[in-house]
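Extended Data, panel c. Modelled sequence:
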Amino acid sequence: MALVPYIGNHIPALSKLHNSSVEFNFGPHHVRLTQDWNKLGVAAVVWDAAIVLCMYLELGQVELKGKIAIELGAGTGLVGIVAALLGAKRVTITDRKPALDFLAANVKENIPPDQLAAVEVSELTWGQGLERYPAGGFDMVLGADIVYLEDTFPSLLQTMNHLCSENTVVLLACRIRYERDTNFLSMLKLHFMVQEIHYDKEKDIHIYKAVKLTRKDL
């Protein structure tokens, strides 16, 4: 997520974002996350898309056990943390450098000590330094509410193309707010086979599954 400073307001719908912490239960796992919107902006609060994606993972619709996963634009790290707790073999949780200390603290708070070695917090600005990540080296790429800044779309697609093999499953959870969001899906379909696999009507969140097109498909 982009690091956007926030000037407080009193809109009731946003009041939960001012809480210093939030708590969730996914299966037998209790997760408590620190939030700090005043310091880090949208990167330091839990958005509905992350919650819906975690609920979807909890349902077991996607096999996590033994998988190597990476979360993009992790913010508080909720999705990556839940993926690890639900059985992913190794999880890399990424965001831009200013968010890493905050992110790492949430990971340490919620991942059992004997599992911490399998969860890595890593800097990733989309489109930059991709050589530090194995090309096509992930079974799953996860993203929650990362489709909202149009200027980042080309670099996000470049990053996804680098991380994914033809066997990688991408799960993107997002709210379709503007025409630019549907434009991103159109861009994504040039490189990936995309289908909507879940819609949370209450929260107005879509989950899309994307699989990289093979040379035969192109």
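Strands lie at 21-26, 29-34, 68-72, 90-95, 119-123, 138-144, 164-174, 192-200, 205-212. This feature is highlighted in the accompanying rendering.
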